[in-house]
Write a structure and sequence with these properties.
Length: 174
C-alpha cells in the first residue's frame, strides 16, 4: 500500500483535523508543529512565538484513493487564504496559513491550485497563503490529538466562536 504525507497549516490545528479525517483514503491526521528552529517544542513554547513554529496537521493518505490535489482543495475551504497574519480569532505567526510541500510534484500542485484560486475571483483580496518546503514535523501533546472527537462541545463552540465556520459558510457555501 502506498502512503504519502501532506502538511497544512491553517490556524488552530484543532479545526484542521476533522475536514480531512473524515475523507476516504486518509490514514491519519496528526496535530503538531512545523517550520521552526526548536526541536520538540511544546504547545506553550510555540504559543509564546519564540520557536518559529506554525500549528499544522500532518496527513497520511493513500494517493490511490484521494489525491494530493483533492487535499489541497479541501485545505483552501478550511482557511481564509487572504489573511497572512493568522486565521480567524487566532493571530500571529504560529497560526499563519501555509502549504508545506515535500516533493516537486506537491509544490507544483499547490502553486497551480493557488493560482486557480487567485484567478477565480472568489476573493477580492490577494491569496497570501505561502507554499514552503516541509520541515521537521513534531506531533503535539496527546490532549490536542483528535480534539474534535474528545471534546466535541468545546470544538464546536470554538469553531463557531472563532469565526471559522461563518467564514466557510459565507465563502464556500459549506
Amino acid at each position: 500500500m502506498t502512503e504519502e504525507k501532506a502538511i497544512f497549516a491553517g490556524g488552530c490545528f484543532w479545526c484542521m483535523v476533522k475536514p480531512f479525517d473524515q475523507m476516504p483514503g486518509i490514514k491519519s491526521v496528526v496535530s503538531g508543529y512545523t517550520g521552526g528552529h526548536v526541536p520538540n517544542p511544546t504547545y506553550e513554547e510555540v504559543g509564546s512565538g519564540t520557536t518559529g513554529h506554525t500549528e499544522a496537521v500532518e496527513i497520511t493518505f493513500d494517493p490511490m484513493v484521494i489525491s494530493y490535489q483533492q487535499l489541497v482543495e479541501i485545505y483552501w475551504q478550511q482557511t481564509d487564504p487572504t489573511d497572512a497574519f493568522g486565521q480567524f480569532a487566532d493571530r500571529g505567526d504560529s497560526y499563519r496559513p501555509v502549504i508545506f510541500y515535500s516533493s516537486p510534484e506537491q509544490k507544483e500542485t499547490a502553486e497551480a491550485s493557488k493560482e486557480r484560486l487567485q484567478n477565480s475571483g472568489r476573493f477580492k483580496d490577494p491569496i497570501v497563503t505561502t507554499i514552503e518546503p516541509a520541515q521537521a514535523f513534531y506531533p503535539a501533546e496527546d490532549y490536542h490529538q483528535d480534539f474534535y472527537r474528545k471534546n466535541p462541545d468545546h470544538y464546536n463552540a470554538y469553531s463557531e466562536g472563532s469565526g471559522r465556520k461563518g467564514f466557510i459558510r459565507q465563502h464556500w457555501n459549506a
